[in-house]
Amino acid sequence: MMAVPSAEKRPLKRQKLGPPDVYPQDPKQKEDELDDVSVKQGFTHRPQIQDEYGSAQNISITSAKVASYFNAILKKKAECNQLPDTARKKQQINIKDNFWLVTPRSKTAIEAWFKDLAGSKPLMALAKKVPIFSKREDMFLTLCEYSVPMLRATWFIKMTSAYHESKVAESKIKKRQQPDIAQDWTQTLTRLLREQLNKIAEMYLGNPSASSTTPSASSTPNANTPGGSLSSSSTVSSSLPSTTQPPQSSPHNQGLSGSGSGMPGAGGQGQTTQAQLTHCLRNWNYCLQLAHFMYQEGLLDRQELLEWVVEAFVRWRNSEHDVILRVVLPLPLQYLDEITQSEYLSRKLAHYSSAKLAQLCHDSGYSSPRPQSPVNQPSNGVGVGVPGSGSSQPAGPPVNPLASTFQELLLCHQHRPIILATSCFIQAITLDCPTALVWNNAGEGKATSWLTGSPLDLLPCPPSDLPMPPRYNNQQVR
């Protein structure tokens, strides 16, 4: 029977070096080349490294040589780390091929294109034919109509900007200054938001001129400033929650749903007005969210946007516009961290917030001078922000009239968000931008009132005694 070799002694891999003590041969080795030099002089072994052995003691090596060698190594390393661009080259934007102007005849094609944009169709395919609107306001309203996601809507805006840039480049007008695209988008969004807010105010207040004229000055001292109307440098604000609802009715806004206001309570006209209000609020919310997304992407002018946010609060601060003010209040809250980085905007917001608080306290019957501490009573040490905070405490000092006024305002659904928001503005500016509250006598009384004096002069109490939300209402925070 034939013997079978054991598998344990079988080599794992076949040997490539051949038998021992024999130099391995290669198919195309240097030794087999029979050129003129090798025939006359024979094969000479040349090591790959010239200084494979020996000493570098007598070799002069300077720091310049070391630096040059090291830089050469870094350069070679950078070249090796670069990945080759195997993708196809970027296609050049062609206005005639990649864009088409929106016309009434192309309504069907536009609807199909925006449905694909709101869906999941790849943007690479949509970029082959991008619709261009003659009015940018129509573009934003169309995006809102189809509820296009923020990321894809921003892509469409960037494509529109690329179209306008290519059109300007083709015009070959070198002397003409290039327009600021960020400022143009900001002004367009601001103009659209102002229109939507005016429509909302017209439906609520029932007075078409109430939203277009400059509101009357506040009854608070130093509050009658010329800053009541929106400035021409319009800007866009950030975002409200997407589920903004009409403000609730309360004893302070009776008649909003009656026949005497802009929102009839019954009949076909009331249903039509309610549908229009819902449509305006939808456009308002979507444009605010889109503006906030564009602001984060750096597509909007920062200063213009923040100025519009503060101006919107200033315009609708009066008592007859409290219903609209509740719609506007989330805007400064959204950008409060950005506003406090500017002393100019912080001082303006703090001044009119203080004037609004003083006005509400005055309308509620409180007209006493500033007390020492209306809320930090030694009996309980709890702030005004929690209604009924002293109910479980034993009888102590008499209740401060300002504390009672704040409690009454906080129990009102109409005034509670206004009181908490304006107090938040003042407290945030006090902590993050205290230089905006410094007393100033600039202009010898001729300057705008909110630039002179100090916003704290209008407050009925120190900022630490203002109401706070229940979550932060504790003595340590104060």
TrEMBL record:
Residues 98-158 form the Mediator complex subunit Med12 domain. Pfam families: Med12 (PF09497), Med12-LCEWAV (PF12145). GO terms for biological process: positive regulation of transcription by RNA polymerase II. Residues 207-256 have a biased composition (Low complexity). The lineage of its organism: Eukaryota, Metazoa, Ecdysozoa, Arthropoda, Crustacea. The keyword Transcription applies. Belongs to the Mediator complex subunit 12 family. It comes from Penaeus vannamei (Whiteleg shrimp). GO terms for cellular component: mediator complex. This is Mediator of RNA polymerase II transcription subunit 12. Residues 257-270 have a biased composition (Gly residues). Its main location: nucleus. Keywords: Activator, Nucleus, Repressor, Transcription, Transcription regulation. Residues 1-38, 206-271, 365-399 are annotated as: Disordered. It is found in: Nucleus. One of its GO terms (molecular function) is transcription coactivator activity.
